[in-house]
C-alpha cells in the first residue's frame, strides 16, 4: 500500500512526480563541504544536477566558494539570482554566445574553460563587450577522452596564447580525472605547471571533479578546488561508485502502477520522458524502493515496463512506488519542478529554473 505521503503527493500533484527530501539534501551538502574542507580544497559544486538557484545558495551558505555551470544559459539563470562566482566548464563558441558572455561578464565574476585556439581567439569579443578581461582555465583530458587537451605541451601552448591575447587572463587548469587515474593526472599537472611557470604564469585555479571522485578529493597535489555535482541528490550510479548510500539518495521519482496485465509484468506511468534512457551502465532503469527485486526493464515514452519475475513482492494497480533513478541529473532536466518534503510533510515546490538550457 502507498504511504500517506505518497498518497498525498499523488492526490495533490499527480504522478510521475520528482520529490526531494530537504533534510537529506542539507545533510548531503554538509557532508561534502566537510570532505572538501578537510582535504584543504575549495568546494565549487556543479549545478547541472539541481539547476536551482535556491539550492546553489544553500551550497554557498554552507561554505562553497562559488558554482560550476556547464552551459552559458545555466550561468545566466544563476547570475540573475545573485550568484557572483561562476565557472563555466565548457567551450563557448560563436558570436551569439560571445555577446551573451560579454553581457554576463559585465555584471558577474565568470571564469570560462577552453581547450583549443579557436575558443581562445573567440573570447576576445566577449572581453571587448564586457570591458574587462576574461579569466580562462585550460581544460585538460586526464583519461576520460571527452573534452580537454591531451598533452601538457598543448596546455602550455594554450597558456602562451592566452598570455599573448589582449583581453584574456590565464586562470589555471581544469581536470576531471578518472576514478583510478589520479597518478596520471598528477604527472600531467606537474609537467604542464613547469612549462606554464616558465612563461611567467601561475595558476590560481586547479580544479578537479566530480562526485564519483569524492573519495579522491585532495589527492592531486596543487589542486585548489573540486567540482562535485550529483552528490546533492545522488542516484544509482553514485551508489554503484561507492560514494553514496541508498540513504543519501534524496530524489525519488514517485510513480503509479497503472497496469498489471499478467502476474510477471506491470506498467508504470514513468517512461523515457521521466526516467530517461540513460542506464549509466547499470541493469534496468532505476531501483524501486518498495520492490527492489523488480526490474524496470524497458520504456515507451509514457510507459515503464516492469519485469516482476524475480520479485518476491509485487505491486498492485494503483500503488505509488518510489524510484531511485540511475542518473539523476538528466531526470531533473526533464521536469519543470520538484516537490520538497521534510519527513512526511510537503514543504513546497522548487522550480527547476535552469532546466533545458541547451546553450
UniProtKB/TrEMBL annotation:
Keyword presence, Lyase: yes
SUPFAM superfamilies: PLP-binding barrel
Domain of life: Bacteria
Pfam families per record: Ala_racemase_N (PF01168), D-ser_dehydrat (PF14031)
UniProt GO MF annotations: D-serine ammonia-lyase activity
Secretion signal span: none
Annotated D-serine dehydratase-like domain residues: 250-342
One Gene Ontology term from the biological process aspect of the record: D-serine catabolic process
InterPro entries: Ala_racemase_N, D-amino_acid_metab_enzyme, D-ser_dehydrat-like_dom, D-ser_dehydrat-like_sf, PLP-binding_barrel
CDD domains in the cross-refs: PLPDE_III_LS_D-TA_like (cd06820)
Keywords assigned: Lyase
Family membership noted in the UniProt record: Belongs to the DSD1 family.
PANTHER family given in the database record: D-SERINE DEHYDRATASE (PTHR28004:SF2), ZGC:162816-RELATED (PTHR28004)
Entry protein name: D-serine dehydratase-like domain-containing protein
Organism per entry: Afipia clevelandensis ATCC 49720
Amino acid at each position: 500500500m502507498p504511504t500517506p505521503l505518497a498518497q498525498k503527493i499523488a492526490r495533490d500533484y499527480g504522478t510521475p512526480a520528482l520529490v526531494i527530501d530537504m533534510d537529506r539534501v542539507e545533510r548531503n551538502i554538509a557532508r561534502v563541504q566537510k570532505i572538501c574542507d578537510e582535504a584543504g580544497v575549495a568546494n565549487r559544486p556543479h549545478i547541472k544536477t539541481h539547476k536551482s538557484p535556491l539550492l546553489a545558495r544553500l551550497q554557498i551558505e554552507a561554505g562553497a566558494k562559488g558554482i560550476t555551470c556547464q552551459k552559458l544559459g545555466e550561468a545566466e539563470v544563476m547570475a540573475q539570482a545573485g550568484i557572483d562566482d561562476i565557472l563555466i566548464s565548457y567551450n563557448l563558441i560563436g558570436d551569439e554566445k560571445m555577446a551573451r558572455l560579454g553581457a554576463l561578464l559585465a555584471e558577474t565574476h565568470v571564469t570560462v574553460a577552453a581547450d583549443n585556439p579557436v575558443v581562445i581567439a573567440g573570447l576576445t569579443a566577449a572581453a571587448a563587450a564586457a570591458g574587462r578581461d576574461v579569466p580562462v582555465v585550460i581544460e585538460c583530458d586526464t583519461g576520460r577522452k571527452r573534452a580537454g587537451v591531451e598533452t601538457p605541451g598543448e596546455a602550455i601552448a594554450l597558456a602562451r596564447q592566452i598570455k599573448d591575447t589582449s583581453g584574456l587572463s590565464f586562470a589555471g587548469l581544469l581536470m576531471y580525472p578518472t576514478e583510478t587515474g589520479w597518478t596520471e593526472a598528477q604527472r600531467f599537472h606537474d609537467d604542464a605547471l613547469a612549462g606554464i611557470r616558465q612563461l611567467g604564469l601561475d595558476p590560481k585555479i586547479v580544479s578537479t571533479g566530480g562526485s564519483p571522485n569524492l573519495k579522491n578529493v585532495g589527492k592531486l597535489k596543487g589542486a585548489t578546488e573540486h567540482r562535485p555535482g550529483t552528490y546533492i541528490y545522488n542516484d544509482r550510479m553514485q551508489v554503484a561508485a561507492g560514494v553514496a548510500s541508498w540513504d543519501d539518495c534524496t530524489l525519488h521519482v514517485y510513480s503509479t502502477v497503472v497496469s498489471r496485465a499478467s502476474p510477471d509484468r506491470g506498467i508504470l506511468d514513468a517512461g523515457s520522458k521521466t526516467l530517461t534512457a540513460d542506464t549509466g551502465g547499470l541493469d534496468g532503469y532505476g531501483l524501486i524502493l518498495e520492490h527492489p527485486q523488480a526490474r524496470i526493464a524497458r520504456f515507451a515514452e509514457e510507459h515503464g515496463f516492469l519485469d516482476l519475475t524475480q520479485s518476491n513482492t509485487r505491486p498492485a494497480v494503483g500503488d505509488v512506488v518510489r524510484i531511485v533513478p540511475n542518473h539523476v541529473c538528466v531526470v531533473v532536466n526533464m521536469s519543470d519542478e520538484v516537490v520538497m518534503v521534510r519527513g512526511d510533510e510537503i514543504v513546497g515546490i522548487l522550480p527547476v529554473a535552469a532546466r533545458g538550457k541547451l546553450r
